[in-house]
Every structure is written in C-alpha cells, then in structure tokens.
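User: Here's a chain of 98 residues. Predict its fold as tokens.
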Amino acid sequence: TLTLQIGKARPDLEILYCAGEESAGQIKQRAKRLGVSSDNFYIYTETDINKVLKEAQKLDPDLLVVDSIQTVYRTELTSMAGSIQQVKECAALLQQLA
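Assistant: Prediction complete.
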C-alpha cells in the first residue's frame, strides 16, 4: 500500500513493482481503489531474482520495489527462498543494480 501511495503522490515516477506474494490482479485492484494511475506503474509477478533484474534493466524505472525480499531467490544457490543466504545474495544483486 505504501508503494501505491508513492505512485499516487508522484505520478511522474516510473515504478516497477515486483510481487512475490500477491497476484497482479490483487495489486491492480488495490491500486484502482487508491486512485493510482497505471500509466507509470508496472507490475511484475516474479520471484527469480535474475528475471527481476532483467526486467528492471529493460524498463529502467525510477523506483524498483521487490515485495518481498524473502520471496525472491537466486537459482544458482541451493538454499530455499527466504533463507539468510538467499536474502543476502538477492539484496546484494539489487544493490549492484542501483
């Protein structure tokens, strides 16, 4: 909801919202209820961090939101999504992108 409110307050920002827990339909419904314009608000439902990074590089948004970090994973690691190793690795990759 906070990200959607940012989108409403700053419609000039291009936002990529990567959702790992909710469907695109749920997010769109909430955005509509809050009055968020969908022109610069992109929803990407993916938990593979490599795909998230690729999408972010393609769109080059002003703001990238990953909801939530414990749902994304790196395929090169054997640990499960949400593990300390996965969270650290995914966060590091996101920092490199920034």
